[in-house]
Write a structure and sequence with these properties.
About 75% of the residues lie in helices and about 0% in strands. It contains 17 helices and no strands.
Length: about 350
């Protein structure tokens, strides 16, 4: 098993390198880079003063500013070169990429182009919001979906199975952001009740509260965002659990265990559960990454929560390359590690599985 873990850890290196290289090429090819973002701002400022210039003066100014960047007309080439140097674009693309990878290996992600903070400080600052949403969403979804899926499998075809499937499918069909807006309208002072706050993760006087009051204030603020996040997450895991259990319940070893007089509880949780959960464990890393980092953007915007989703979106819009690649590197690394953890969990759930045998 240890040799398998070592091989997987070594395989992470080329995988991570390939993902970063592919995204680097795509992002570099996209128009509107950070240099052009700054030039657009300069052009907007200069346009106010250029109206006071004569036509001949404007023509002479524009003709002297030929450049490969959009919006560079009329801007001093030396100023453009200085902007390129500040952003590191005075070096070839391949040199910038390998320098970036070398820094990332020591977890040096540099500073944001447009924020007066390091990338690592930005991620650590925004992470509590995303962890709060992701942790509570994951706990609630798994705590509800797995028992519900097991009961639906045991009572397959019953009235409970039919109406519960209808409910979770309707919930799955409702987009998170639409359900969030409905919650605000009903429970956050929109048109009916004013029971929950609309903005932020805590109140302004949070630091002056007692520990118990702080816990209550935090739960008060997080309730609606979490409800909006979980509404469409029940269906996939519930149906996956149900189908996994149905597939195992109909196998020969279950019939044999029942024929020997084994209790239904023992058959279900002593034999079926261990095998049926393997498929669910396999999809856990992707689910965790999706819940924690990629599915909370609209929820964060609607409820004014400044988390990683909003940070990544703003970085893409501003072409803030250090933030884009820094968050991509961390998320990819976490995803690869979680995938390895899920493989190890396979063995813990079912010791009969041996990855060593498969690699021989």
């Amino acid at each position: 098993m240890w040799s398998y873990i070592v091989r997987r850890l070594l395989l992470m290196i080329p995988t991570l390198f390939g993902i970063m290289l592919l995204n680097f090429i795509i992002v570099q090819a996209a128009p509107g880079g950070p240099v052009e973002q700054v030039l657009a701002q300069l052009d907007g400022l200069d346009s106010q003063s250029s109206t006071r210039l004569g036509a001949s003066e404007q023509t002479e100014l524009q003709s002297s500013g030929d450049s490969e960047y959009r919006g560079a007309q009329g801007i001093d080439p030396e100023l453009i070169a200085e902007i390129e140097r500040q952003f590191g674009f005075d070096k070839p693309a391949h040199e910038r990429f390998f320098q970036m990878i070398g820094n990332y290996m020591t977890f040096d992600f540099g500073d944001s182009f447009f924020r007066d903070q390091s990338v690592l400080d930005l991620i650590l600052e925004k992470m509590p919001v995303s962890i709060s949403l992701g942790l509570w969403t994951t706990l609630i979804v798994y705590a509800v979906s797995i028992p519900l899926g097991i009961r639906k499998a045991v009572q397959h075809g019953s009235q409970f199975d039919l109406w519960s499937s209808s409910v979770i499918i309707v919930g799955y069909a409702i987009p998170n952001f639409l359900f969030a807006i409905m919650l605000i309208v009903v429970f956050a002072g929109g048109s009916y009740f004013d029971w929950f706050p609309l903005r932020g993760l805590t109140s302004e006087n949070f630091d002056q509260m007692s520990p118990l009051e702080q816990v209550g204030d935090y739960l008060w603020h997080i309730t609606l965002p979490v409800l909006a996040s979980v509404i469409s997450s029940f269906a996939t895991l519930t149906m996956l659990t149900k189908n996994s259990f149905l597939d195992e319940i109909n196998k020969q070893y279950v019939m044999t265990a029942r024929a020997k007089g084994t209790s239904e509880h023992r058959v279900l949780y002593g034999h079926v559960f261990r095998n049926a959960m393997l498929l669910i464990i396999a999809g856990m890393p992707a689910a965790l990454i999706g819940i924690f980092f990629s599915s909370s953007l609209l929820i964060e915007v609607i409820f004014s929560l400044d988390g990683l989703g909003l940070l990544g979106f703003e970085a893409v819009m501003q072409r803030d390359y250090p933030v884009i690649f820094g968050t991509l590197y961390i998320f990819t690394l976490i995803g690869l590690i979680l995938k390895l953890v899920s493989d190890i969990t396979y063995i813990l759930v079912d010791p009969r599985i041996s990855f060593e045998a498969q690699n021989q």
